[in-house]
């Protein structure tokens, strides 16, 4: 009798463990040593209208050693696809704050970002400094970027982005624009730390700089540019360094209800 009970318990344990094993395999087929994406974080603009301690008092609710990877200014041929390849090899998901003009120029790359499971966010149409424009003109520039991206993805323009995440070029926000975006239910992202990849440096120098900053902050929202060659060259080693030093990657996504509402509005 006891033997039968033990056998049943072992079988139950084996079957109970199968979903977790399958999920791990599905997450990164053939790469048990991959960095992977540790968890998905839903970011509701109503709760987090502005995040990133470099610019705002609040940031995302990240645990110690958790990192959110973000990339600005793309997509760009010859570079963004290499960034996507590096992320794919490690089964890591990131957020791309894209420009509308780049979306129009490289629609296939834009669609690949989405197809690969990354979050597609917004960075205006043409990357002007919005604090040097009138509030009305600045908002038109923001909406132009939304419309360009949505047209590539869904075939028609809209000023209601499917993903309500936005980052100001050069972090050049104004109180009026911040308030307006909050009223529209759009979260504004700063960063907790920078890669400073707008400055020319060797990939190895950039890797050392970023890892030193991550060690000091114990994680946070990290800003890269997928248009920068040094970042493209550094990224594979960077992802392996995250793994070896115990950092975890968090993928941020919008609330499903907000995405569904935007899709319904687009359909109308």
- The radius of gyration over CA amounts to 20 Å
> What is the CATH domain class?
Alpha Beta
CATH architecture descriptor name: Alpha-Beta Barrel
Number of helices: 9
CATH topology, which one? TIM Barrel
What overall geometry do the principal axes of the alpha carbons give? globular
Number of domains: 1
Describe what this molecule looks like in 3D.
With 268 residues, this protein is of the alpha/beta class. It has a single domain, classed as Alpha-Beta Barrel (TIM Barrel). Helix content is 46%, strand content 15%. It has nine helices and ten strands. It has helices at residues 2-27, 80-89, 100-105, 107-115, 135-154, 175-183, 203-217, 229-244, 256-267, and strands at 39-42, 50-51, 66-72, 95-98, 119-122, 165-166, 187-189, 193-194, 219-225, 248-253. Strands 1, 3, 4, 5, 8, 9 and 10 form a seven-stranded parallel β-sheet that branches. Helix 6 links the parallel strand 6 (165-166) and strand 7. Helix 2 (80-89) packs parallel to helix 8 (229-244) and helix 7 packs across helix 8 (229-244). It starts with a helix and ends with a helix. Residues 1-26 and 257-268 have low confidence and may be disordered.
């Amino acid at each position: 009798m006891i033997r039968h009970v033990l056998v049943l318990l072992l079988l139950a344990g084996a079957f109970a463990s199968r979903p977790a094993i399958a999920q791990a395999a599905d997450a990164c087929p053939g790469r048990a040593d991959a960095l992977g994406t540790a968890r998905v974080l839903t970011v509701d603009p109503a709760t987090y209208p502005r995040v990133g301690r470099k610019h705002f008092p609040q940031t995302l609710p990240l645990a110690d050693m958790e990192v959110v990877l973000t990339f600005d200014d793309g997509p760009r041929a010859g570079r963004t696809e290499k960034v996507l390849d590096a992320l794919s090899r490690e089964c890591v998901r990131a957020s791309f704050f894209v420009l509308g003009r780049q979306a129009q120029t490289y629609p296939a790359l834009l669609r690949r970002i989405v197809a690969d499971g990354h979050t597609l966010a917004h960075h205006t149409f043409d990357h002007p400094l919005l604090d040097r424009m009138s509030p009305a003109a600045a908002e038109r520039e923001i909406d132009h970027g939304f419309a360009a991206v949505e047209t590539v993805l869904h075939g028609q323009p809209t000023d209601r982005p499917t993903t309500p995440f936005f980052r100001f070029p050069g972090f050049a926000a104004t109180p009026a624009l911040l308030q307006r975006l909050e009223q529209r239910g759009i979260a504004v992202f700063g960063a907790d730390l920078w890669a400073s990849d707008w400055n020319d440096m060797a990939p190895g120098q950039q890797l050392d700089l970023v890892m030193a900053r991550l060690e000091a902050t114990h994680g946070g929202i990290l800003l890269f540019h997928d248009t920068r060659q040094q970042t493209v060259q550094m990224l594979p080693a960077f992802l392996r360094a995250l793994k070896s030093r115990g950092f975890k990657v968090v993928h941020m996504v919008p609330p499903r209800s907000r995405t569904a509402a935007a899709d319904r509005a687009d359909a109308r």
